[in-house]
Amino acid sequence: MHGILTIYRKEMEDHFSSMRFLLIAALIVMIGVIIASMVGMSMQEELRGVAKPTFVFLMLFTSTGKLFSFVQFIGLLGPLIGIILGFDAINRERSGRTLSKLVSQPIYRDAIINAKFLAGVTMIAIVMASLVLIISGLGIRLIGVVPGAEEIWRLLIYLVLSIIYISFWLGAAILFSVVFRSTATSALASLAVWICLSFFIGLGGSFLADAVAPINQTADMAEATDAFLKNAEIQRVASLFSPMTLYGDATSTILDPMRKTTRAFVLMGPLERFSLSRFQNPLPLGQSVVIVAPFMISLIAITFVCFGICYAVFMRQEIRST
After folding, report:
1. CA 205 from chain center: how many Å?
2. In angstroms, rounded to a whole number, what is the distance separating the alpha carbons of residues 84 and 80?
3. DSSP code of 293?
């Protein structure tokens, strides 16, 4: 434990003095505040002289405005924080000949990798908590609404989901820093995986769905409906391999109490519509948590699996003094 705390403090000092981290954090905070300001001013105009709806405060984070919502922005560019924090965590020490000095001290080898990951998670939590607090204060100033207890709980769950999501990319970046000796190679590998999992998974799922269940325009209505549903289901399953989809569905649902499901398209019959008509009020917080629980568990699982692989690879590597 002593070794972990020592390396943890050293890593925190390095992060706070790292110019590249400060620049990317400042950029993300600035863009996030700009998005929230645009949404807040738009809501201020629309709600002037009108009774404010329930959970209006959460709209600051989910409304798209002129660009995209704050939730979409973090889902898209939030991974850059984790990548910046972790892409040179180990190979920087190796190239600087300091890794062998660390393991020669009375410090367990696993303390090195654990402390680096914990320091990165702490920095992610600081950035995200500061960003949420800044936007919340800005929202109170612009729309004149103080969040209620349930809204605060929903924001806290959103904050935890965001930290877990970005921590996955931190673990992936540290893994590449363990595998590759060059910092440039580990950075490029991290960015390549980010681009692939965030952007190309959906495109690949669309191609797979069209190949497995093509939609025939000349078929009758029943066959066309079945083919459409099968096609949409395949795309949906394929998209779940993207951490950004897991994060986007979970956070959109937890921040929007009126949303009853994570699915964007739901085909319902008359009995389903009659049943749904009884639940037009906002979902309680507990029900929203139940809906997003599989996505939250999946994010936690892939984060631990990624860091577990990183831990195992690092523990088996040979560390030379030259």
Report:
1. 20
2. 6
3. H
Type of residue numbered 285: L
Which tokens sit at 111? Answer: 């303390």
Q: Give the pLDDT of residue 117.
A: 93
Which tokens in the block code for residue 107?
Answer: 């410090």
Contact (Cβ atoms closer than 8 angstroms) between residue 244 and residue 50: no
Q: pLDDT band at 83, cuts 50/70/90?
A: very high
For residue 187, what are its two tokens?
Answer: 């950075």
Q: Which two tokens stand for residue 289?
A: 């948590």
Other residues' Cβ atoms within 10 Å of the Cβ of residue 169:
29
Yes or no: say if 300 and 250 are a contact pair by the CB < 8 Å rule: no
Hey, what are 319's tokens?
Answer: 């560390």
Q: Does residue 274 carry a pLDDT above 50? A: no
How many other β-carbons are positioned within 10 Å of the β-carbon of residue 192? 11
Entry field: residues in the chain: 322
Q: What's 215-263 look like in SS3?
A: CCCCCCHHHHHHHHHHHHHHHHHHHCCCHHHHHHHHHHHHHCCCCCCCC
Structure tokens belonging to residue 269:
């019959």
pTM across the whole model = 0.85
CA dist 191 and 197 (Å) reads 10
Find the largest Cα–Cα distance for the chain: 74
| Confidence band, pLDDT 50/70/90 cuts, at residue 122 | very high
Number of H helices, E strands in the chain: 15, 0
How close are the terminal C-alpha atoms of the chain, in Å? 28
How far is it, in rounded angstroms, from Cα 312 to Cα 322? 23
**How far is residue 117 from each of residues 50, 120, 174, 281, measured CA to CA in Å?**
48, 5, 8, 42
pLDDT tens track for 136-175: 888 888 777 788 888 889 999 999 999 999 999 999 999 9
Least confident of 20-34, 94-108, 206-220: 206-220
From the list 178, 110, 130, 111, the residue with the least C-alpha distance to 30 is: 130
